[in-house]
Amino acid sequence: MSIEASPRPGTTIRIGPASGIVRWRQVAVPLATFAVLVLLSAVSLGRGDFPIAVPDVLRTLAGLGEGAEPFIILELRAPRVAVGLLVGLALGVAGALFQTFARNPLASPDTLGITTGASVGAVGAIVLSSGGVLPGLGIPLAALLGALLTGVLLFALTWRAGIDGYRLVLIGIALWSIGTALVDWLLTDAEIHDAASAYVWITGSLNARTWDHAVPLAVALAVLLPLALAASRVLGVLQFGDDTARGLGIRLQGAQAAVVLIAVGCVAFAVSAAGPITFVALVVPQIAVRLAGGSRPPLLASGLLGAVLVVGADLVTRTVLPEALPVGILTAVLGAPYLLWLLVRGRRRSTL
């Protein structure tokens, strides 16, 4: 094994015939973000009607808790934090995949209509089940099916011997508009108590989350995250354009299909667990690329930053604000100005 300086940023490491460049900034950012996430999760687990100090929380997580602390932390509070962490991780990775693939910082599950498709499924289950049209169809399952169907429709409408990022965004915005109209129609036709339940869900909330919500999402991410990380090399080639990717031996159509389906799967399971927590997938990839450097949003850093944002926003809504609000409201308040800034910046560049 040998380590030597590289003319490019980073350090070249050689192990036998294999070699690679390690960019220490891109290693330090995920490690620092993970440390912040652990600390933030411990603080969140300790806050509530029965306050528990952070050292006691960490001791309980290590299996050394005493008294009622293990029950309070592991059974009452941990499911909410775990769902928030997993949802933020999934949305951050999905946003990085979409933005790198489309080569557009506006590409995210929110603007592409996938979260709106999940909302159509969930609101439809709430409203139609009340009338006996869809008895027994659970809200998470309906949201999952809505997101998956929207993703398949997005893929089918965008496909023209490959997927063009610009066409992907335009068709996604159209699907978002259609989904929003369907949600409004369902809410208008709903009974007042059904409409109230639907509004709570479509804002995105971690209230009343249990291990039944966390476990399916964890299983899905155990499959999807390795696939996303394995697709990282292909993403690095796709960002340079279709012709370059073909010239480097990438099977373009299969690679594009795989990236889109992985991203849609991450979003579908995340939204089915906690509702459409908006703007996370839009904001965190751009924060990650500015912190870690490089030409595209790093997947791991984006996922960890998404988890930090969701867990932190939930902690703020529970402990800082005068009234507890769904976490999706705070992420929307933080993300909407950023979207406006992206649009204004893009317009200024186009007029130069």
TrEMBL record:
Q: Name one GO cellular component term.
A: plasma membrane
Any one GO molecular function term? transmembrane transporter activity
Q: How does it sit in the membrane?
A: Multi-pass membrane protein
Q: What is its main location?
A: membrane
| Keyword ATP-binding in record | no
> Membrane-spanning residues where?
27-46, 81-100, 112-131, 137-156, 168-187, 214-236, 257-287, 324-344
Q: Does the keyword Iron apply?
A: no
A Pfam family hit: FecCD
Which CDD domains does the UniProt entry name for this protein?
A: TM_ABC_iron-siderophores_like
- Gene3D superfamilies registered for this protein in UniProt: ABC transporter involved in vitamin B12 uptake, BtuC
Annotated InterPro entries = ABC_BtuC-like, ABC_transptr_permease_BtuC
Give the record's keywords alphabetically: Cell membrane, Membrane, Transmembrane, Transmembrane helix, Transport
Q: Where in the cell is it found?
A: Cell membrane
Q: Which GO terms describe its biological process?
A: siderophore-iron import into cell
What family does the entry list?
Belongs to the binding-protein-dependent transport system permease family. FecCD subfamily.
User: Can you say what this protein is called?
Assistant: Iron complex transport system permease protein
